[in-house]
Specification:
By secondary structure, the protein is mostly helical. It folds into two domains: about 5-195 and about 310-340, 3-Layer(aba) Sandwich (Rossmann fold), CATH 3.40.50.620; about 215-305, Orthogonal Bundle (Tyrosyl-Transfer RNA Synthetase). It has 14 helices and five strands. The chain has helices at about 20-30, 45, 55-70, 90-95, 100-105, 110-115, 125-140, 150-170, 170-175, 225-230, 250-265, 270-275, 280-305, 310-340; strands spanning about 5-10, 35-40, 80, 145, 185-190. The protein has a three-stranded parallel sheet with strand order 1-2-3. Helix 3 (about 55-70) crosses helix 13 (about 280-305) and helix 4 packs across helix 7 (about 125-140). The longest helix has 30 residues, at about 310-340. The structure holds adenosine monophosphate and tryptophan.
Length: about 350
């Protein structure tokens, strides 16, 4: 049985959608929809692995949906939905809790970072989160997963889970007629110059939703003035921009701005240096402000318009969830049979 190519990705509704989310993930989604069947999920079950104010969670779920729509994802051709409306995610996650090994999860660097010194006090959900992420992808038997570089380790875990499930249940899987295993090993798509957009204040930290300093990130809700101020104040170093790529070695802040420019302009970083190398940072920053405002502000404006009608957003999510469920349900039913649950 030939497995159809299918794209799945998720974004957490945890506030402060930023340029890293856009360039590392959402912009890629828009491009992928041209040639693939895609599911784009607002992962609210993931969000509550750390405490979320309920009102804010709902607002943020609609905001991520608005960002998908404003960026240009077509909700009729593709599926946009929120995770909690499709029960198969949590159900398959439980089975994966029983497939994944403690030793595998103990290696997850994101858990270590997020739990920090207060590990004993972290939720069990935060620890088991990568199993849920594997279930998100595999409940659709998705084959390709566009994400930023920070998700690489979680994707490797999803592949390990798929592989172990295929091996543990090889016999019933073969009996059911699946010659190459039941789950595909999902491929991460981590490409281009902006797979890890860094903080504008510190080139050694990634741009993140949770960083307290607003100056560290460009939010998708920022207006043109805020974008200009943040880019002008972005940390740089005293040297002019180099003309060659290796001149960026050891200059993470300069490299970050060049890569942001390249990703937004859809050109190679080499070309950015070809155009701006030897020049001052202030001239380059001015060009970056203009480019960012030109490309991001229309998305921000459209998001604001969409957010004025939350009922319309909820309809997109309901319709997407119905269609997602139609794909997930028969797959999850097969999984239950394979595992040996009595089904009706
Ligand atoms: P999250 O906000 O953690 O749900 O992330 C949503 C998507 O954005 C995931 O694919 C992340 O890998 C990606 N992402 C988050 N932060 C960054 C960043 N600083 N640079 C590039 N991609 C990012
Ligand atoms: N864990 C991802 C993040 O924090 C979000 C996510 C959840 C995801 N499930 C997914 C991404 C499945 C890709 C595929 O960014």
């Amino acid at each position: 049985m030939e497995l159809k190519q299918r794209v799945f990705s998720g974004v957490q509704p945890t506030g402060n959608l930023h340029l890293g989310n856009y360039l590392g993930a959402i912009k890629k989604f828009v491009a992928l929809q041209e040639h693939h069947d895609c599911l784009f999920c607002v992962v609210d079950l993931h969000a509550i692995t750390v405490w979320q104010d309920p009102g804010e969670l709902a607002r943020s779920t609609r905001e991520v949906t608005a960002a998908f729509l404003a960026a240009g994802i077509d909700p009729k051709q593709q599926i946009i939905f929120n995770q909690s409306q499709v029960p198969g995610h949590a159900e398959l996650a439980w089975i994966f809790n029983c497939v994944a090994r403690l030793g595998w999860l103990n290696r997850m660097t994101q858990f270590k970072e997020k739990a920090g010194k207060h590990r004993e006090n972290a939720s069990v959900g935060l620890y088991a989160y990568p199993n849920l992420m594997a279930a998100d992808i595999l409940v659709y038997r998705a084959t390709h997963v566009p994400v930023g570089a920070d998700q690489k380790q979680h994707l490797e875990l999803a592949r390990d889970i798929a592989q172990k499930f295929n091996t543990d249940f090889a016999e019933p899987i073969a009996k059911a007629g699946f010659e190459d295993g039941f789950f595909p090993l999902p491929e991460p798509l981590i490409t281009g110059p902006a797979t890890r957009v860094m903080s504008l204040r510190d080139g050694s930290k990634k741009m993140s939703k949770s960083e307290p300093s607003e100056m560290s990130r460009i939010n998708l809700s920022d207006d043109a003035d805020a974008i200009a101020k943040k880019i002008r104040k972005a940390k740089t170093d005293p040297e002019p921009l180099p003309s060659e790529l290796d001149g960026l070695d050891g200059r993470p802040e300069a490299e970050n701005l060049v890569c942001i420019y390249a990703a937004i302009a859809e050109i190679a970083p080499e070309q950015v240096l070809g155009d701006f190398g030897g020049g001052s940072f202030s001239a380059f920053k001015q060009a970056l402000v203009e480019l960012t405002v030109e490309k991001i502000s229309p998305i921000t404006n459209e998001m604001n318009k969409l957010m004025a009608n939350p009922g319309d957003i909820d309809e997109v999510l309901a319709d997407g969830s119905d269609r997602a469920n139609q794909i997930a349900e028969p797959i999850y039913r097969k999984v239950k049979e394979i595992v040996g649950f009595v089904v009706r």
